[in-house]
Design goal:
With 307 residues, the protein is of the alpha/beta class. Helices cover 41% and strands 14% of the residues. It has twelve helices and eight strands. An eight-stranded parallel β-sheet has the order 1-2-3-4-5-6-7-8, sandwiched between helices. β5, α7 and β6 form a beta-alpha-beta unit. The longest helix is centred in the C-terminal third of the chain and has 17 residues. It is globular and about 55 Å long. It starts with a strand and ends in a 39-residue tail after the last helix. It binds zinc ion. The site of zinc ion has 6 residues, from loops.
Amino acid sequence: MRFIDPHIHMSARTTDDYERMAAAGIVALIEPAFWLGQPRTQVGSYIDYLSSLVGWERFRAAQFGIHHYCTIGLNSKEANNEALAEQVLEVLPRYLVKEGVVAVGEIGYDDQTPVEDKYYRAQLALAKEFDMLVQVHTPHRDKKSGTIRSMEVAVEMGVKPEHVVIDHNNEETVKDVLDRGFWAAFTIYPNTKMGNERMVEVARKYGSNRIFIDSSADWGVSDPLAVPKTARLMLDRGIAAKDVEAICYGNALKAFGQSGQMREEHWLNPAPIDQRMLFEGNSVLRGQTPRVGEPAIVERTDSVVFK
Ligand SMILES: [Zn+2]
């Protein structure tokens, strides 16, 4: 089985994670722009971060046989620093048009403050202007009302539901999201309420139409193999293979493929690896012999969830 992880913050992860993900069958991923765990103090650190998402990180993923796409936006937490937010908004357009950018994201609400609302709307307007998809982060606190508000504001701003992925759903939000015609993504964190056991029951109840999962792995307690592991569990618990395939691969491709930036042909016939390649003079190697002409994916017995 092939997998896509449509929400993972790889700049916080190691090359070891890339190897394990590729070995477990992940062929493509989407890295949403977000914060650093602490607030940025100036627009320059934003510019360098966004450049790394479309540059170095894309190169690094390719060195391990994974296709890297990203979403570009001002996250809701940092929207609360209005002076910074104004400057970030000015630089976003130059990144939205870069190769591999599949949506404006992850944007939305955190504490649902008036400034968060202001910059959420401003970025929905950008999505309209650039004819782009939107990836919405829903708040952890007051989730249900925050999720509904995210959808209502998107519609009010003229963005079509089928162009919006609502992420971090749970059993309380999924029905509203599906009923309104949006895509419903679920983040599977280890040892939390929206764990993979609960996801199996969501799949049983709602099927696979417009539903998909991601790991949202970052520098916190998270698992870059959450998608393949949940797929394994779904199959073991009797969810039909076609539904598992849709939830763990096909639907993310359908949703983000609407951008025209992400296509199956990118990974169906993978080119052999060439680790002699450099990005701005740098490689991923630290004294190792470059692997050239071999399949990109390394055998990893510790991370093979599927044979
Ligand atoms: Zn995220």
